[in-house]
């Protein structure tokens, strides 16, 4: 299986998920996880990002720390992983892909986006290494 295919990526994601603690699995039972090749043009435009391989993940929803009774009826939480962005980070200078680095980047991105669900800022997540 070629490392740049969706099937290969999904296989690596499944391996990463198999190593995650039960709390992550409990969260993913409530928060849908979508894997897409890249973000939509609308997302790129809203975020001011020019290259579709520059974004690895996205959390959409209302963070737990910001929720109130006033948030009833808003769309639910979703975590998006963007395959091309993650592959971009996991590739070396010659374009080769290390499966361990790919799994590491998938893990970091997933935990990063779940951190946003809990109200963590980019700075908070950076301090934790995500």
Please name the defining characteristics of this protein.
single chain; 130 residues; mainly alpha; Zincin-like; three-stranded mixed β-sheet; 6 helices; 3 strands
With strands numbered from the N-terminus, the spatial order across the biggest sheet is: 1-3-2
- Main beta sheet, described? 3 strands, mixed
- What's the number of structural domains? 1
Task: List the uncertain runs.
Answer: none
- CATH architectural arrangement: 2-Layer Sandwich
Radius of gyration: 15 Å
In words, what does this structure look like?
By secondary structure, the protein is mostly helical. It has a single domain (6-60, 75-128), classed as Zincin-like (2-Layer Sandwich), CATH 3.30.2010. The chain contains six helices and three strands. Strands 1-3-2 form a three-stranded mixed β-sheet. The longest helix is centred in the C-terminal third of the chain and has 19 residues, at 99-117. The protein starts with 5 loop residues before the first helix and ends with a helix.
List the helices and strands and how they pair.
Blueprint (H helix, E strand, L loop, with lengths): L5 H13 L3 H9 L2 E4 L4 H7 L9 E4 L17 E5 H8 L8 H19 L4 H7 L2
Parallel strand pairs: 1-3
Antiparallel strand pairs: 2-3
Helix pairs in contact: 1-5, 4-5
Quick structural summary:
With 130 residues, the chain is mostly helical. It is built from six helices and three strands; from the N terminus they run H-H-E-H-E-E-H-H-H. Strands 1-3-2 form a three-stranded mixed β-sheet.
């Amino acid at each position: 299986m070629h490392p740049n295919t969706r099937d290969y990526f999904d296989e690596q994601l499944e391996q990463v998920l198999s190593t995650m603690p039960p709390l992550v699995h409990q969260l993913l039972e409530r928060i849908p996880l979508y894997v897409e090749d890249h973000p939509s043009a609308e997302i790129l435009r809203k975020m001011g990002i020019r290259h579709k391989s520059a974004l690895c993940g996205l959390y959409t929803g209302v963070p737990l720390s910001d929720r109130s009774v006033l948030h009833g009826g808003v769309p639910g939480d979703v975590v998006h992983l963007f395959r091309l962005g993650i592959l971009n980070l996991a590739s070396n200078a010659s374009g080769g892909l290390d499966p361990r680095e790919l799994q590491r980047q998938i893990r970091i991105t997933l935990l990063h986006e779940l951190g946003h669900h809990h109200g963590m800022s980019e700075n908070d997540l950076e301090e934790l290494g995500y």
